[in-house]
Here is the input.
Amino acid sequence: MESKIEEEIPDKKLNCEWTFWYASRKEKDRHIPYEQRMEEIFSFSTLKEFFIRFMFIKDIASIPRDNEIAVFKKGYKPLWENTPESALWFYRFHPEDDKFLNVKWEQLIFSLIGEQFDEPNILGAVLSKRGRETVIELWFNYFGFNKIKGKLENKFRNLIGLEYEDMLFFKENKYSCKDKSSLRNAEKYGHKKRRKFTYN
Here is the structure.
């Protein structure tokens, strides 16, 4: 029997199906290939399916460091090799910014599943809690089209509350495969160092 909250959630069909993923980045697990560390948490294709499950996911501040969560269109995985023509925009948050990340992460997820990016090449997003920082990534099929790249930079900046001068990073996944890292040798866009967010 559905709860009152579940009854109030509209059973609206989404334009595509999405999947949440989890992966460990812990030192003790790094001998295991990344793809084998990935676990599918749940998939959803309606708003009701999403909210019923999303309510039970821990808030970002409660997730231990050296873990990753991701939400991707069904049929794709947050793997460089799985999306060789793709690229990503990402921002690097200080650990003390964790208290702000719930809102930023939720805004990004809601924008993805609600098709607010208005871009069919969107693939998904990753939140990676590392030892010294938290990285939020926006993945998309790139194909070398700078129009897609520029459009998504602006929307990503707006969603996570960045100004034009704040340092945002871009990297194609074919180069991530080569470097074995998304962060290493990434292109920089902006002039400021990482922003430390404050309450208003």
DSSP finds six helices and eight strands in the chain. The chain has a mean pLDDT of 89. Helices lie at 4-8, 34-37, 47-54, 98-113, 146-159, 173-179. The radius of gyration is 17 Å.
